[in-house]
Batch of 4 targets.
Target 1
Amino acid sequence: MIKILELFGGIGAPRKALINLGVEHKSIDYVEWNEKAVRSYNAMFDNRYKPESVVGYNLKPDILVHGSPCQDFSIAGKQYGGNVEDGTRSSLMFETIKIIENLGNWKPKVVVWENVKNTLSKKMSSAFNLYLTDLERLGYTNSYKVLDAREFGIPQARERLFTVSVLNGEWFNFDLLERKPMRSIDEFLVKEFSDKHLITQPSMLSKLPGKKVSGTYGGRMLTEIKEYTWTITTKQMRSPNSGVIRVEGNKFRYLTELECWRLMGFDDIDFERALKEHPGQMNKLNGTLYHQAGNSIVVDVLEAIFKSIISNHLNVKED
C-alpha cells in the first residue's frame, strides 16, 4: 500500500487517478482551504475532511502531491510569480518545503507539483528555480516537463508544468510515460443541455466564431470546438474560454458543467455526487462546479505519472 498526501487537494484528482489504476493506497490526509471543494471531495470519496490550511502540517506520505494556486503564475492572473515576501497565493508552494523540513530525517520518496506552464517564463521562473533549489537541498533530484492532456487521451488543449522530485539521486523520466491517442470529443459531449447553456449575452454574441473582429477586444474571439477544447477554466461565460459548441446555424452554447468534469477525467458518478452537494441556482450556470473542474488536474495525466512512479521508484505493483 502506498500513502499519499494531497495538498491544495481540490476535488481529489490524485486519489481518483490511483483508484483508476487499481493501486492499493491510503490518503493519509487531504488539505484544502476551499469549503465547497472539500464538500465535493467528501461526497466523491466518502470522507469527512474539513477545510484546512497546509501551514504547519507534519505527516509522512510516500508520495506528496501539491498543486498550489496558479493565479500568480498564470498569464490570466497577476503574475507576481509566487514571491514569498509579497505573500502571494502561489508562495504556498513553499509551505510544501516547510512540511518536508518538519518531517526531519524521514522524507516522502516522491514529490509531485503541478502548475501552469507560464511558471517557466522569464518573469516567473525565479520562484520556480528557488523551489527546485530547496528540494535539491533536501536531497531530491528534480525533473520537469510541460505535458498536454491531448497526449493522454483527453481532447483538451491543456498544457501544464509537472515537476517530479525523487529522493536519493533518482531521475524521473517523462519519456517513459504511457501516451494514448486522443479520444473523440463526441465521447465527452452531452446530447441534451439546458437553455441556460445557450449563448445569449450580447457581449458574448459579439465574439462568436465568424463575427468580425473589432474594438478593444479584437482577437479575443470565441473558438468553435471541433476536435478538442481549449483549457477548461473556472468560468465559461467569458472570452476567451474553453470554446463553444455550434448548436445549429449561428446558434452556439457553452460547455456544460458535466462536460467540463468529463474533460478533466472524472466519471459521471463523481459529478453527480458533487452536484448533489452544490445544486446551484435554477436556470443559472453552476459556477461552483465549473470552478472545481477548472482548478483540478487532469486525472489521466496523473494516472500516467503515478504508473511510472510506482513501477520505477516505489516498486509497488498494480492490482
Note: The first strand starts at residue 2 and ends at 7.
Target 2
Amino acid sequence: MKHVAFYPGTFDPITNGHVDVAQRAARLFDFLIVGIYAGHEGRSKQPLFTAEERRALAEQALRGLSNVRVDVFRGLAVDYARAVGAQAIVRGLRAVSDFEYEFSLAHMNRHLAPDVDVVCLMTSAQYSFISSSMIKEVAQLGGDLTGLVPEHVAEALVRKFRALVGE
C-alpha cells in the first residue's frame, strides 16, 4: 500500500519554509500532493497570485522531488485528501503560536474525516519567522528576499508588484 499525504495551503506565494516542509514530507511518504487552495471564501484578503500562478510557482520550486505533485483544490482539505486517497494531511508549524490553531484544525479534520490523520512538521529554524504575508510586504516595499523564497518566486513578486503599480 502506498502512503499518500496531502499538504494543503494557499502558498501565496510558496516560501522556502513551505519547500522545506514539502521536502521533508516527501521523504516520509511514498507520494505527496501539494494542494493550492483556490478558494478565498471567508478570507479577509484576496490572494496576490491566481491559483494557476501559485501552482506554477510551486511546481517550479518542487520540481526536483519525483514523488510530489502540485494540484489546485477547492472546498475542505479533508474531502480533497479522501478524493486523492491520502491517509494524512501535512501541516507545518513555525512557532508555538501556530500550534493552537493547528490543534483545533486537526480536531475538526478528525471529526470530519476520522480516516485521515494530521501530521505536523516543525519548520526548520532558519525558516521559522517566514510567512507568505510577510514575504509579500517585504517584496512590495523593495526588500531583499534572498534565502526566504526560491529565486523565481522573488522575481515573480517583483513583476507582480510592478504590474500593480503600472510600471
Note: The first strand starts at residue 4 and ends at 9.
Target 3
Amino acid sequence: MLIKPIVKAFFDKETNTFSYVVTDPESRQSAIIDSVLNYDAASATTKTTLADEIISYVQQNSLSINWILETHVHADHLTASQYLKQKVGGAVAISEKIAVVQETFSAIYNLEPKYFNTTRSFDYLFKDGEHFKIGEIDAYNIPTPGHTPACLSYVIGDAVFVGDTLFMPDYGTARCDFPKGSADILYDSVQKLYALDDKTRVFLCHDYLPEGRDHFVYETTITEQKQHNIHIHAGTEKADFVQMRNQRDATLAMPKLILPSIQINMQAGQFPEPEENGIRYLKIPFNFFKSNI
C-alpha cells in the first residue's frame, strides 16, 4: 500500500503559484517543491516572504529537508531554492534535460553555454524515470515535456506534482509556445499521467480563477482530470488538442516575469555575480520575444 505523504501548500497570490512541502509522516523527512522568491519588477528587488513561511513551517514541525525539487524552469516566478537551501538544507534538483533549456536560452541571452557545465548550478539532475526516496516514501519522476523540454512530474507515494503540465479541470493545460515547447509532446505527456492510478492525488503548480469559480484550488485527482479537463479529457484526440492549444497560445501575452525568471531559474536560483561596482545585473533581450513567441 502506498504511503500517503503529508502535503502542505503555500500560495503566492502575485504569481498564482502553489509551492509544497511534502513529508513522510514517520521519519519527518521532506521535500520542497516549486518554491517562490517574491520579486518586484518595478524596482527589480526580491523578498523572501513566501520562502520564510515555508521555513517557519519546516522548523515548527521539526522537519528535515532532503530535496528542493523543481518541476521545470519557471517563466512566471523566481525560485527561492538557494535561499531555502541555505536556511534548511536539501539538494536542489531538476531534470537532466535542463541542459536543453540552458543551451536554448544561452543563445537568447548571449551567455556562454559552457558556464553551466563548469558551475554545476543544480545539486542533482534526474534521469527520466529515476527513483528516489523521501524518508521511507518511494518516489520517482515522470518526464512530462511539452510546456518546456525539461518538465518533470514527481510521483511521491499516492500523490503526483505535475508542475505546469495540467491545471484544474475547469482551466485545462499549460501553454506550449515557449522555445522548444510542443503541444504534440504535451498531449503524450498527459497520457503518461492519465496512466497513473485513478485515485492518485494531483497537486498543481498554479491556479487561475476561471469564470464561475471564486476560490483557488490546488488539488484534484487523475479521475477528475480524465473525466472533466476542458482541454484534454480521456476521449480527446491528439489532433484536436494540438489545434486547440496552438490556437489558444497564439492569443496569450508573455508572462510578466519571464525575462528575469528564466535567467535566474536556469541557474538553480543563483543570482548573477556582482560587477565592479558591487551591483548585480539582469539582461533583457530587447525586441526578441516580440516576434519569436
Note: The chain has a mean pLDDT of 94.
Target 4
Amino acid sequence: MSACAAVLVITLAGCGGPTEIDSVDLDEADAAACRDFVDGLPESLAGLDRADVAPDDALGAAWGDPAVVVTCGAAEPKDFDEVTWACQEVGGVGWFGDPSLIEAGNQDEDITVWALTHSPLVSIAIPSDYRPDSVPATLAAVATPLADSLELVEPCLDPPE
C-alpha cells in the first residue's frame, strides 16, 4: 500500500466516530441530575438518530452528522449579556442565544443556546445544516427531560417596558 493510500485509510477511519463531549467537573448531586437528564433524552431528535458519544459516560448526547450536541454542566457563555440576550421559553425552560445568530436573516451559521434558567446549565450546539427548521423541535424535545431532571433557579423574566 502506498503512503498516500495509508493516509487515506487512516483519515477515513477517523470519520464517523463518536462525538466528543467535554467532561465537566460537577459535584455529585449535579452529576447525578445530569445523568438523569441525559438518560431521559429521546433516541430521535428533530428527525435525527442518536449518535455515539465519547467518553461513554459523557454528561451529554448527540444526534445526526453533523451532530446536534447537548451538554449538561455547560459553562455560561463568555459573552452573555442579560440585557441583550432575550430569554425564549419553550416547554417551561428559558433558552438564551446570541441575538445576532438568532435573527431570521442569519441562519447559515452554527448556533449554541443555553438553558440558563436551570441548574446545572445545559447547552445545545445546533449546526447550521439544521437551521432554522429543527431549532423549535430540538428545544421542545429537550425541554421536558430538562425540566423533569434539573432545578429551576430563575424563570425567564418579562422584558423591561
Note: Residues 26-152 form one domain.
